[in-house]
Every structure is written in structure tokens, then in C-alpha cells.
Amino acid sequence: MPWCDTCDHMVEDDQITDEGECPECGDQLARRKIPWHFKLMIGGTGVYLVWRAYQGIGWLVHHA
Ligand SMILES: [Zn+2]
Known about the structure:
- The chain has one helix spanning about 35-64, and strands at about 5, 10.
- Helix content is about 45%, strand content about 5%.
- The protein folds into two domains: about 1-35, no CATH class; about 35-64.
- It is rod-shaped.
- The longest helix is centred in the C-terminal third of the chain and has 28 residues, at about 35-64.
- The protein is mainly α.
- A two-stranded antiparallel ribbon has the order 1-2.
- Zinc ion binds near residues 4, 6, 25 and 27.
């Protein structure tokens, strides 16, 4: 899904106009990529969840 800088959110593939524009502001989105900070946020969330799962397993091992 492309990112709209103007609206500051991602645009669903099926909401993009036939011209590849944002349905809300009309910005050209076809060549835009997801910004790095959004990827960082996704990656950070993934690492956090893995860490929590790791902690949970450790707790179970020690309290079983
Ligand atoms: Zn937009």
C-alpha cells in the first residue's frame, strides 16, 4: 500500500484512483514508498513482541 505524505496515512490499494492518486487529497501516490520510520515502528513492535514472548516462555519454565 502506498503512503500519502499530505494526509499522513497509508492508502488502501482499492481506494487509490485509476490515476494512482490519493482519494482524499489527489496526490500522486503510485511511486511513493512506505517511509522508513513506519518500517522502524513495525520492526520495533515485532522485536518487542518477540522479547515479550521470550520472557513469557522463561517465566513458564521457571514456574512450571
Ligand atoms: Zn492524501
